[in-house]
Amino acid sequence: MSKKRAQKRENDLSSSEEEDFKPKKLKSEKSPEVKSKINIPEKETDDEGNEYYSLGRDRRISLSSFKGKRYINIREYYEDKKSGEMKPGKKGITLNALEWKNLLAVADQLHLSQEE
């Protein structure tokens, strides 16, 4: 703010108005009361017998095997209009054991940085 504007603002405000004047809070300052509840999803089974956990908004995480190796799949699903079944969409990621461990390590660091 320029000096002229600051002086004009000081002159315009009376003493009672000065007491009422408070700067606006930034949106990033959230009160600690406004925390989203974390619901731990229950294990579910699809039509083919595969177990998965729902992450919300048609997203699922599951464990799979391919050529003797285990993978974690995080994928979006959609409802097939013809059959009404939930089918995997194009968006998703498959992680091997090392990538999964790295993701968990990074997730802990991200969680700690959000608390500060």
UniProtKB/TrEMBL annotation:
Keywords on record: DNA-binding, Nucleus, Transcription, Transcription regulation
Pfam families: PC4
Localization, UniProt: Nucleus
GO annotation terms (biological process): positive regulation of transcription initiation by RNA polymerase II
SUPFAM superfamilies with a match to the protein in the record: ssDNA-binding transcriptional regulator domain
Matches recorded under InterPro entries: PC4_C, ssDNA-bd_transcriptional_reg, Sub1/Tcp4-like
Predominant subcellular localization, coarse grouping: nucleus
Extent of Basic and acidic residues compositional bias: 21-43
PANTHER family in the cross-refs: RNA POLYMERASE II TRANSCRIPTIONAL COACTIVATOR (PTHR13215)
UniProt family annotation: Belongs to the transcriptional coactivator PC4 family.
Protein name as catalogued: Transcriptional coactivator p15 (PC4) C-terminal domain-containing protein
Organism: Chironomus riparius
